[in-house]
User: What shape does this take?
Amino acid sequence: MFRWMTAALVLVAVVVGLAMTWIWREPAPDPVARFLEQHWDKPLVAQGAPPEGFSALEASLSPGDCAECHAQQHQDWSESLHSHTMGPGMLWQTRALAPAEIAKCLDCHAPLAEQKALLAMELDWPGAPTTPPPDYVAPDLHRQGLVCAACHVRAHERFGPPAAEEKPAGDTPGLPHGGFVESTAFSDSRFCATCHQFPEDGPALNGKLLENTLQEWRDSRHAAEGRQCQSCHMPGRRHLWRGIHDPEMVRSALTTELTLEATSRGRLQVRAEIRNSGAGHYFPTYLVARVWLRLVLLDPDGKDRTLLMEQVVARDVDVWLKEERSDTRMAPDESRVLELEIGPPPGPGWQVELRIDVAPREHYERMFATVLRNNAADLGAETLRLLEQAFVEARESRFTALRTRQPVPVVIAN
Assistant: This one.
């Protein structure tokens, strides 16, 4: 086991050490900042040998074993994007790119040193361990994404937020894995910043960081009012992390109003207002998603007849992140208005619908399609299979988040 862990540490130093480390460094010497600086000192080091007396279950880094006692948390996690950070969209890239190129992604997609070592073994990277992993490292741990241990385990010691109820934490004899260390950092937005906020000198376009969610939140009223990231994305401490990919979450972020009025000229005034009232950051915050605000005229059977107006809400960036073509995202509390005048429809029963359509992985759709079109012949069979699967999954993630309809009033021409 020692040789395997040594090799894992060498791999982290040689390969992962080449990665950019996206860590939000907090200059203020407060306890949360001090905890986070140590807790998220990337690349994370290997756990090492488990404490003497730990059972196999206590030593395990596998989410399935955590579920033995934390069933609800595991169920939520298994349905979240965190459990899919090493899905086909990431796996094809691990096979197509050089280790040094992919290493920076792993700090968030598979941050444990043990996960990186397993991936290196699978792909035969230089410096990969040559012996099987220890028993507490499942052979497929690297494919399980952002696992529980990435946030909660360091050197086999467990960390978490203060207990919600009066329950013992650490230093209590008989508790599994020796209990846990409490930290209020787990309820602080800065905890999420390690993967959701680039540093000031991180990658940017047009003077704006590609990932700037924490700062967007800090500039909003939500921060001043005390709402942390966890307030919306982990309500009741649920491990859900829902965002732009979730219809209910999108609806909760937006306030909409649709009005139709007959004009004195015998025409129809249509107005829709969409406001980012609920998201404590830009809507959407990152560059992957694209949202369409649409006004559609429906016939008496409810079928689309005319697209009256459309606005795109997105940060439009080329597939290789070299150029920002536009940025039409909505800042917190910002509104967009769609307004136009149309002639009356040819009879009763017509409606106007405000529709909000979301492609949560639109940037990936374009990027995957570009590679399939231009580079498919250069990819191995398994890499190509993963890429094709990733493209299908990205495309199938599209959804309609909201439909609001108003009947067209009778218009009397003067």
The first helix runs from residue 2 to 14. Residues 5-24 have pLDDT under 50 and may be disordered. Residues 2-195 form one domain. The longest strand covers residues 304-317.
